[in-house]
């Protein structure tokens, strides 16, 4: 079974930066698409960014120009570099991994709080 473990969350001031990591274990082959979703209190879970094993990326409009997603295929690890953070970025961030035609796997979620 695939396990996703997130790390790197925490408290950061507005305008600051934070880097999230998600390591996938239990997979013997490259994950087609990995990414990050987030859920703020009282809101629906939303897509933040995704990246395929070929390097194709997709970003939510709200984070374009501020967040960068990358992956290390050899380690089945995906990263989310977050810069120019805003209070509205505060949420629980969930790692996601998916192969075509299969249900996605999810990490347990990691808190990101942007506050002064």
Helix content: under 10%
% residues in beta strands: over 45%
Oligomer: single chain
Mean pLDDT: 94
Largest sheet: 7 strands, mixed
Distance, first to last CA: 40 Å
SSE order in H/E notation? Answer: EEEEEEEEEEE
Alpha plus pi helix count = 0
Shape: globular
**Overall radius of gyration:** 13 Å
Pick out the low-confidence regions.
none
Count of β-strands: 11
Structure report:
The chain has 116 residues and is mainly β. It is 0% helix and 52% strand. It is built from no helices and 11 strands. The strands form 2 sheets. Strands 2, 4, 5, 6, 9, 10 and 11 form a 7-stranded mixed sheet that branches. Strand 5 (46-52) and strand 6 (57-59) form a beta hairpin.
Main features:
mainly beta, seven-stranded mixed β-sheet, four-stranded antiparallel β-sheet
List the helices and strands and how they pair.
Blueprint: E1 3-7, E2 10-12, E3 18-25, E4 33-39, E5 46-52, E6 57-59, E7 67-72, E8 77-82, E9 91-98, E10 105-106, E11 110-114
Parallel strand pairs: 2-11
Antiparallel strand pairs: 1-3, 3-8, 4-5, 4-9, 5-6, 7-8, 9-10, 9-11
Summarize the structure.
The protein has 116 residues and is mainly β. 0% of the residues lie in helices and 52% in strands. β4 (33-39) and β5 (46-52) form a beta hairpin.
């Amino acid at each position: 079974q695939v396990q996703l473990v997130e790390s790197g969350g925490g408290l950061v001031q507005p305008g600051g930066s934070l880097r999230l990591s998600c390591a996938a274990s239990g997979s013997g082959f490259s994950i087609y698409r990995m990414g990050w979703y987030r859920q703020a209190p009282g809101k629906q879970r939303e897509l933040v960014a995704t990246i395929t094993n070929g390097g194709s990326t997709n970003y939510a409009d709200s984070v374009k120009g501020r967040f960068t997603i990358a992956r290390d295929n050899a380690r089945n690890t995906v990263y989310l570099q977050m810069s120019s953070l805003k209070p509205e970025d505060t949420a629980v961030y969930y790692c996601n991994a998916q192969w075509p035609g299969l249900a996605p796997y999810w990490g347990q979620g990691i808190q990101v709080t942007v506050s002064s």
